[in-house]
Each structure stands twice: as C-alpha cells, then as structure tokens.
Write a structure and sequence with these properties.
Number of helices of chain A: 17
Number of helices of chain B: 13
Mean pLDDT of chain A: 87
Distance between the termini of chain B: 15 Å
Largest sheet of chain A: 7 strands, mixed
Low-confidence stretches of chain B: 314-318
Largest interface: A-B, 53 and 49 residues
Shape of chain B: globular
Largest sheet of chain B: none
Structural class of chain B: mainly alpha
Shape of chain A: globular
CATH architecture of one domain in chain B: Orthogonal Bundle
CATH class of one domain in chain B: Mainly Alpha
Number of strands of chain A: 23
CATH superfamily of one domain in chain B: MetI-like
Radius of gyration of chain B: 24 Å
Structural class of chain A: alpha+beta
Helix content of chain B: over 70%
Strand content of chain B: under 5%
CATH topology of one domain in chain A: Dipeptide-binding Protein, domain 3
CATH class of one domain in chain A: Alpha Beta
Radius of gyration of chain A: 24 Å
CATH architecture of one domain in chain A: Roll
Distance between the termini of chain A: 60 Å
Oligomer: heterodimer
CATH superfamily of one domain in chain A: Dipeptide-binding Protein, Domain 3
Chain lengths: 557, 318
C-alpha cells in the first residue's frame, strides 16, 4: 500500500480522493485484497451452523400461552434506566421492553417506524425533519403520548448536563409541535445520522409528567410507552418489569413479567439456563457454543454485530484524549508503512477460527457487510502476507524483530486473542509483548495516551457515522489514537450531510480506503452476539443492533 | 471491666477513623477513573466533566474527604456512581442477604466442624478420625468457586434439587428463602467447617488428656457427660476464637459464593463496585466491614469470660 500518513498529505481534496481510490484498486491487484463476505442473512430461528446469522422468529400467537414470568440472565448490569443518561449497552435490553422509540430497526438493520407512523420527511435544504406520531398511545402512567411529550424528552436530551444523547442528536436548533401528532426538528445543518439516533435511546420518549415529578431521579421509576412497565430493581442483581395494560397493542403481549438477572460468569449463565432457572442467557461464550448446540432443549441465536473489535495504534495521543495530537518518536507511530506491515502480518481468518471457533466474522473496516451503507470498497481487505510485512518494515528502515507492546483487557477471550496475535505477527517481523490490564485501568491508560498499541472494540450503531467519525475524526471525542487526516474529515463531514444513501455509501467507501492506508486503527473482527434460548420460549429475537427483543415472546403451549 | 470496655471502645474508634482514611485514599489510588467506567462506550470530554462535577470528583481530595466525613457523620453514604441509587438503600438490601448467608454458614460450619472434631478426638486412630481428617483436608483445599460450580452442576442442573441462582427475601417466603440460600451457605461453610474441625480436634485431645477429665471419669461420670460438659466446654473457647478470626475469610468467601449463585449480597456488591470504581459504594462497604470486624472481635473478647470464668478481663494489657 502507498504510504500516505495523516500529517504528510496536503494535496487538493479531489486529487487525493481520486488517488486514494486508484491506490486501493492498484493495491488490490498487487497484494490480492479479498472482499469480506456477508455470512449473515439467514433469519430463521433454531440452531444454525457456526457463523450464520439466526435472529429468531416472532412468536406464533396460536402456539404460545398467555402469562408466565420470563427470566433472562444478563452478562453485565445495565446502568441508570434513564434514556437521557444511559450509557451502557445492557440498559438497551431492558428499555426494549419498556421504552419504545420513535423508530426501531428490523432484522435487516433497516430503520422502521415504532412510535412514529412513517419515516421522517426532510425539507429540501435538509434542515427541517418532520415526524408523524402514532395516535391513541398512552404512557405507562396513563398520560397521553403526543408531540409535547416528544419535545420535553428531546429538550431534556439536549440540555441535561449529563446527557449522553446530546452529541447523538447533532445540530438540533429547536423542536416545533405544529399539532399533537406532529413534531418538526429544526437543524442548523443537514445531519443524516439523526434517523439512526432516533432508532436508539435518543428516540425513547419519556412521560412528561414523570419527568416533572422525578427530575434527575427518573431512573428510580422510569415511565415510557412500552409492552411492559418498570416494577422494581435490586441494584447489581435484577430488574423486573410487568405487563402494561395501557400499551397500545397489549393483546400482542403474552408474558406477565420479565426479570433480567445479572450473572456475570458465562458458565454460570449456561448452567442456569440448563437448570431452568432462566430461559435466556445472553453473551454465550464461543467456548460454550458447541455444547449448547448439542442440547436438544436449547437453541442459540446468532447476530453479527454492527460494531467491531480492532487494534488502535497511538500515533499522536501524547497529552491525553481531547488535546492536540503531537508527534511520537516511534516507527509504529511515525510511519504508516510499519502499521501496514503489522496489518499484513495478521491472518484475520485464522485468528477468528483459532480463538473464536470461527463464530465471529472477519472485519477490515468499520462498516459491517450487513449495513445498508456497505459497498465493495468498504469491504476491501488487505491480505495476510508476512513477506509483504517484512518488506514494508525493510522499506521503513526498521530492524526486525521490531518490538511492539500491546495493552489489552485481562479477560480470558482477549488474552487468547492477544496470544494468537503474538504468534501470528512473529512471521511478519514483529515481537509482540502483551500487557494485560483490568478494564477500568485500560480505559484510563487509553485516554491518557499511555500505550503503543491497544485492543478494544465498539458495539456498533445503525448509522455508520456513529461507528466511524467519533473514533477517527480529527479531535473527535474517542479518537484515542490521536489520528488526524483532513481529507478523511472532509469525506466524513460530506457523508454526514448527504441525504442520499448511494452518495453516503460512496463516501464511506472512500473513507475506508484512506483508513486502510493510514492504519491508525486496524479492524480485526466483528463479534457475533450469541444468545442461548430455552426451546420452551418462542418469539425471542436478536437483531443486528445486538439488542435482545423479549417483549413479544411467550411460553409454548 | 468498665475500664476495659472504655479502652476497647476508644481503640475501636481510632481503628475506624484510620480505616476511613485508608479506604478513602486507597480507592482513589486505584488506577482507573469512575467517570470513565460510568461513561461506558459513549464518552466525550464534556460528558466526563459533567459526571465528575455531578459526583464532586472534580474537587480537591481534602475537600472530597471533608464532604465524605461530614456526610458519614449524618449517616449519609452518598449515591452510587454506577446506578444512581442511594448507597444506604443498596446496603439495606444487600446486608440482610450476606448476614443471613454468613450466619447460616457459621451455624452449618460449627455444627459440622465441632461434631467432626469431637468424633475425631474421641475415636482417635480409628477410621472415623481418618474420614474426618480427610474431609477437612478436602474442605480446606477445594476453592469455593469450584465447589460452587460442582454443586450447581450436580444439585441444580442434573437433579433440580436446588435453584442454581437467585434469592427470595425471608419475609416474602421463608421456605423458598431457605431453599435458595442453603446450598450457597453449605458451600461457604465448608472451609470454615474444616478449620473448626481441626481446632476442635486438637483442643479436645488436649482436654481429654488433662487431669480434670481423668477426675471426672474417676468420679464415675458417663462418657457422654465427660465429653460434652467437661472436655468440649473447655475446647469451645478455641472454636469461638477461630470463628471470630475467620470472619474475614468468610466475607471474602461470600464475595465468591454470592457471585456464583447470583445472590444480591454485600460481596457481589463489593466486587462490582471495585470493577466500576464506584467510590461511594466501596467506601461504605469497607467501612461497614471494618465496623463489623471491630464489633465482632469485641464480642469475642467478651465471650471469653462467659465460656471460661478463669479469664478475668482487666484493663491491663498484660
């Protein structure tokens, strides 16, 4: 690959883009880039072979009985049950049953209306987004769901000091409510990722009355629109919701209540599933997959994540995240050839097969093949080529073996991954040292810039902007690599503001080409969320957003 | 006695103050930032700043300490950074679970340990002693974690005799409560039972070979009375001391046991709080544990005089 490092390039934009596309095509001819195939797509229920998506099927109303309590074993505890403040992936599982959103995603990762009646209409200049609301809907406290409630929620998202939603909603200037069933969002500039955000926590509408009475303590008794309503929470242990009679489609709800129990150990979750104490276990270990598939009473759902796991290389984070990038005197940080060599030394397929029994999918870019924004360019993959790696190191004038220290979380899965990488990159001329640390410390070290190379991932969002810009945009909030490439920034801004899917696809394809040249972040694989479900239960589904959908499940008659 | 109590009281207060300082400084010396842990995936500098400001983590350490002591003096443990729940309400939920688990574990361990210890001493050199010694060795050597997993595998998954996880409050359904907690309590009690057995056995052997036991036998007392009323009573002082000293082991064992069985207790709360750097929860938990330690050791000292009248407690350290 050509050596096009972030700070070295100052060419006019169009020339750079043309050069980037041409370079990618040339590189693919020379070193045989292989496209990543989308192994997903099979959406049927039941046990599928390893590496095949299986999202589960909706419950057949004639085959399930009314009533019953569903127990779900969760691998981590959700944080505050407040859509404005929540930052944990696991709270989305609970919200799914009790806090519906303006929009949802379907099994094809497409946005579909939920509390809205149709997809939003955008004005010609892209700065006014009109959302029609579902009529006759009530919150769990009996109050009406209308445009005023939507406005109150969005304003809270935008103004609360601790809001985790503010950046997701982008440049909203104001919220208008022309009538009770219509909301108009006024934007300072066009913002395409808005729809994706409204299909996540930013689109969960809270009862205005509950917001008034509970204020910052909303999480103590959250009130939204949903098939279930909040009942009780035992911190660090369980959360329980019960069927909400006010729900607009209450007849479609079969269960009486759902309880999420926090069981952090994967083998304990599996044991609880087998003993019948729980009927669903999330985040099954790839190590337990084979045994659970043999179990006639259990089916395993597989859903490929929209996020990624990757390696971040520190190329300019000296004074901590959020500060201006500074040069780091290390070949890995200074020379893109060294980073490309590292990437060529990795055999992603072998890594996924050896460490995760082939269950996860190879990833070479931040855009999942399942995403509507995927393109052949976005799925280009630099080939495993140790000879090329040593050649690039020689061109960069680096002595081999070149020692690189990798910071990684001390979980068993990550350590196995790190050890496999260690032996793999040896052939490419690298001596990889592993520095395992506990997760909280890892985040701390990462943000301070105390690392050379680190392994971490991102769970993924529907809109690709949320999976890219925050991590590689100049000065972005999670750009821990201290990476900056003005050409990439321009592409990402254009993609944010483009209304057309095809145009955004093209721009993201070009962005991936630049990312693979600079290699500040080497994408490795995409996790497949594995959820084990008792066959007594029907209708449990897991979609590509990774969220477990239990609200319309029921026990078999 | 009053002087002794006073001395012990001020010593306890000093220990408590010192542990407050150690805990406060200690949790902040841990690498990792609670704001980062809370921010999860969606973190931006502004969000981190807002979290730190909200929880007062942006204040200088001495100011944070002063606020902490002031709140503690009013019985306010603060709010959990992770869940936003008041720590006091988390404690009132978690504490009864761990107390019940520990009390049950102590009762089971004492019954098993004292019984096996007495048996091993009385039947010295016979198969009963070998069996008791063997079981004690297993109890001491096998980690709670593994034993817990085995119990779940065989007693929950395979036979369905006990639930694999969960908890029902005793006031809600006492029978179901016992059904849920008995297995974790037995697992937690195994290590302690083994220690008690070893101590009881050696103390009983000492007592059985002493003059007063020979006198008791010579008086024509039945063997059962000699063992229970004379030898065992004098051996119990060792058992009481051991139970007091092993409380720390019991609490650390509870951390693991609660984690395996998904019990909403103190131990699980502690471990989750440490991983999340939830300062208010860690501080409250450690302080309460330290207080429990001090109080229990104080009562163990008092129990000495009840069990053995020869011990005349005075204020003199000598």
């Amino acid at each position: 690959m050509t050596n096009l490092s972030a700070s070295e390039t100052r060419l006019p934009r169009r020339r750079v883009l043309r050069a980037a596309v041409a370079a990618a095509a040339a590189v693919c001819t020379v070193v045989a880039c292989s496209p990543v195939s989308n192994s997903g797509g099979d959406t049927s229920g039941g046990n599928q072979s390893a590496g095949q998506d299986s999202f589960g099927t909706p419950a057949d109303p004639a085959a399930v009985k009314q009533g019953g309590k569903l127990d779900i074993a969760l691998s981590a505890e959700p944080d505050a049950l407040d859509p404005t403040l929540s930052r944990s992936l696991y709270s989305r599982y609970v919200f799914q049953a009790m806090c519906q959103k303006l929009y949802d995603v379907d099994e094809k990762a497409q946005v579909v209306p939920q509390l809205a009646t149709a997809l939003p209409t955008t004005s010609g200049d892209g700065r006014a987004v009109t959302i029609p609301l579902r009529p006759g809907v009530r919150f769990a406290d009996g109050t009406a769901f209308d445009s005023a409630a939507v406005k109150a929620t969005l304003q809270r998202h935008l103004t609360n000091a601790r809001s985790a939603r503010k950046s997701e909603l982008g440049p909203i200037d104001g919220v208008d409510t022309p009538d009770a069933q219509t909301v108009v969002l006024r934007l300072k500039q066009p913002f395409a990722p808005l729809l994706g955000a409204l299909a996540d926590r930013a689109g969960m509408i809270m009862s205005a009355q509950a917001l008034r009475s509970l204020g910052d303590n909303f999480a103590s008794a959250p009130v939204c629109v949903g098939p279930f309503k909040f009942a009780k929470r035992v911190p660090q242990n369980s959360i329980e919701v019960v069927k909400d009679p006010n729900y607009y489609e209450a007849s479609k709800v079969h269960l009486d209540s759902i309880s999420w129990r926090i069981l952090t150990d994967a083998s304990i979750r599996a044991a609880n599933l087998r003993s019948g104490d729980v009927q669903v276990a999330d985040s099954v270990s790839t190590q337990d997959f084979a045994a659970l598939r043999q179990d006639a009473a259990v089916s395993v759902l597989q859903s490929q994540s929209l996020g990624y796991q990757g390696l971040t290389i520190n190329i300019g984070n000296v004074d901590g995240i959020g500060t201006a990038p500074k040069p780091i005197n290390r070949p890995l940080a200074q020379n893109a050839k060294v980073r490309q060599a590292f990437e060529h030394a990795i055999d992603r397929k072998a890594l996924v097969d050896a460490v995760f029994n082939g269950l996860h999918a190879v990833a070479c870019s931040p855009i999942s093949p399942a995403s509507a924004f995927s393109s052949p360019e976005a799925q280009t993959c630099p080939a495993h080529d140790p000879a090329k790696a040593t050649q690039l190191l020689a061109e960069a004038g680096v002595q081999t073996p070149y020692t690189v220290t990798m910071l990684a979380s001390n979980t068993p899965d990550t350590l196995r991954l790190a050890q496999a990488l260690q032996s793999m990159v040896k052939d490419g001329g690298f001596d990889l040292k592993i520095n395992p640390v506990e997760y909280s410390s890892l985040l701390d070290e990462q943000d301070r810039g105390n690392f050379e190379l680190l392994q971490l991932g991102w769970s993924g969002r529907i809109d690709p902007d949320a999976n890219i810009t925050n991590f590689v945009g100049t000065g972005a909030s999670q750009n821990v690599a201290g990476y900056s490439n003005p050409q990439l920034d321009t592409l990402l801004t254009q993609a944010r503001q483009a209304g057309d899917v095809e145009e955004r696809k093209k721009l993201y394809g070009q962005a991936v080409t630049l990312l693979q040249q600079d290699d500040a972040l080497i994408y490795l694989y995409r996790q497949r969320n594995l959820t084990a479900v008792s066959k007594q239960l029907q209708g449990l589904q897991v979609f590509p957003d990774g969220v477990l959908r239990a609200a319309f499940a029921g026990f078999a008659k | 006695m009053a002087r002794y109590l006073l001395t012990r009281a001020w010593q306890s207060a000093l220990t408590l103050l010192l542990s407050t300082i150690v805990v406060f400084v200690g949790v902040r010396a841990l690498p990792g930032d609670p704001a980062l842990a809370l921010a999860g995936e969606d973190r931006s500098p502004e969000a981190l700043e807002a979290i730190r400001r909200h929880y007062g983590l942006d204040q200088p350490l001495p100011v944070q300490f002063a606020q902490y002591v002031e709140r503690m003096a009013q019985g306010d443990f603060g709010v959990s950074i992770r869940t936003g729940t008041p720590v006091s309400s988390m404690l009132t939920t978690a504490l009864p679970v761990t107390v019940e688990l520990s009390v049950l574990a102590i009762l089971i361990a004492s019954a098993l340990g004292v019984g096996a210890g007495v048996l091993a001493a009385v039947r010295r050199g016979r198969p009963a002693e070998w069996l008791a010694n063997g079981l004690a060795l297993v109890g001491l050597s096998v980690p709670h974690f593994w034993l817990g997993l085995l119990a779940i595998l065989y007693l929950s998954v395979a036979t369905g005799l006990f639930p694999a996880s969960g908890f029902v409050p005793i006031l809600e359904d006492p029978v179901d409560n016992l059904h849920h907690i008995i297995l974790p309590a037995v697992i937690l009690g195994t290590g302690l039972a083994a220690i008690i057995m070893r101590q009881t056995r050696s103390a009983m052997l000492d007592s059985l070979s002493s003059d007063y036991v020979r006198t008791a036998k010579a008086k024509g007392l039945r063997p059962r009375a000699v063992i229970t009323r004379h030898a065992l009573r004098n051996s119990l002082i060792v058992v009481v001391t051991v139970v007091g000293l092993q409380l720390g082991g019991l609490i650390s064992g509870a951390v693991v046991t609660e984690q395996i069985f998904g019990l909403p207790g103190f131990g699980k709360m502690t471990i989750d709080a440490v991983f999340q750097r939830d300062y208010p929860v860690i501080q409250a938990v450690v302080l309460l544990t330290a207080t429990a330690y001090i109080v229990i050791n104080f009562f163990v000292d008092l129990l000495y005089s009840v069990i053995d009248p020869r011990i005349r407690v005075t204020g003199d350290p000598a």
